[in-house]
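Collaborator request, handled under Task 6.
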Amino acid sequence: MNLNKKIKSIVLLFSTILIFWISVATIRFFYIDQYHIKIDQALKDKKHLVIIYNPACERCRSVLPELFLTNSFSRGREYVINSANMTKQQKIKSGSYLLPSFRYKGQIYETVDKILIQKIWNKSHERK
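Structure tokens returned to the collaborator:
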């Protein structure tokens, strides 16, 4: 009986950690960045990573959840912009025609290559 209690405690602990981890990633993606920025400000910023996505975009859904789960505790700053909230002029100014789009230091990457995306993320979040 004592062994069953230990197993239940371990499962409960891992479940709690997993829920916490997913919650942090979700909060970072959905609540912190995209609702507290000005889109024009983000598009002018060349020092930070800018991610432009659309929730209905299948390409975006194939890479962004994993990206934010993997990097939920990374330090640094990124802008996450829902393209549905952008004006036509902002979309033109962004230079992005295919989503998801990753902008960093004047370069635009329109890719779903997870290795390249992780490299961009790492470069934009490295400590200086």
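The cover message to the collaborator said: "The mean pLDDT is 87. DSSP finds five helices and four strands in the chain. Please let us know whether this matches your experimental observations."
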